[in-house]
Structures are given as structure tokens and as C-alpha cells.
């Protein structure tokens, strides 16, 4: 429990920087949202953070019910307040959860159509347990969309070649990580290959990979992020189906 409490303390503080979810989707949301085209039904976002993506999806009629899960009580309270302040929404459509562990006992087996987890798996204590739990609650036809930092990004490879610690979760120098949390409290590192192995071990089959970000798209980097995400993107997005 001590480790969980350390994480909760960190993310309660981290939630202070979150933006207003009613301002709309931004950042990674804009990379993930197009991947949700054609999906509908029961949706859960594991690690909903500021709630900008979750609230945007909850407002759409194609999703019947939505669940947001986050370790931060402050973040959950902020999302709840924002949702209830939106005119003419069904306040009961969005359920928010602040679990004390990686388990989700309140959610029934094979009940979710769409599962989203953006920049979260690298933060949890046990990624196997989390992905196993997401498998448990997923319907046989469910889609999982998740993203993680890419340790094999070309920039990171060059840094490692020169003995420099890659920064995947913060812009702060390593000398400030005592206050910031080690690399933004990223507990795990992934490459496209290792994340594929993890997903498959937990019953998820990747159907599509994408890179994340818009920086330097004007000079063509966006094309290479999409074409070669395993090396040209600092973050990987995987769209997965549940193995039968």
C-alpha cells in the first residue's frame, strides 16, 4: 500500500496542472480521437486525467455510457463538476471511479465495447495486472486503444549512444527529478516490440500502430511518424482487438 500511496500523492499534486476539460480536446486527444471512428457502445477511459477526451466522447450519442477511471481524487472531482455544469446532459451517463488498486471490481466481466488508455500504462505498478483487468471487462468484440512512450525513438537512441538519459515523461533535467518524480513518474519503458509482447501476453492483438505528435509535421515528419512509429515517434499508439 505504501507504493500506491506514493503514487496517489504524486498524482494529486500533478492534477493541479490539468486544463479545463470543457475547453475541448487537445494534445494526445487529437491523435486518439480519429481512431475511435465507427466505434460505439459502452466506453471506459483508464487514466482519464483532465477528462478532456472523456467528456468529449461522453457528449456523443454513439456512446451509451462512459466510465472514467483515475488514481487522483482531485482529477475525478474536477471532471465530475465539469460534466454536471454542461447544459442538457444526462448526468448519469458518465460514471467516475477512483480505485484503490489496479482492479475494477465494480465493472462486470465482458461489459465494455471500447477501452481507451492514453499515456497511463507506463505509470502503473503492474502493467500485466492492468491489461489483464482490461481484458476481463472487454466484450469479445471490444477495441482497446492505448498509448505509451517509445524508448526506441530515434532521438532517444542517439541520446543513449552518448550516455544521455532519455526523458520520456518530463522536460525537466535529471538533476530536478527528486522533486519532479523520476522521469515524470514513468515506472516502465517500452519499445514497439516489447509493448507488442506485453499486449499479446495479456490477450490483446495489435491491429494498427501510429505515432503521436504534430511537431515538425509541416516539413514531413508526420508522414514518417505514421509510417515508421517504432523509430520516428516519441509515443506509440496501438489499436488492439481482444484475442478470442
UniProtKB/TrEMBL annotation:
Pfam family, one: Methyltransf_23
GO molecular function: methyltransferase activity
Source species, domain of life: Bacteria
Any one Gene Ontology BP term: methylation
Record-linked SUPFAM superfamilies: S-adenosyl-L-methionine-dependent methyltransferases
Alphabetical list of InterPro entries matching this protein: SAM-dependent_MTases_sf (IPR029063)
Keywords assigned: Methyltransferase, Transferase
Identification of the protein by name: Class I SAM-dependent methyltransferase
Organism: Spartinivicinus marinus
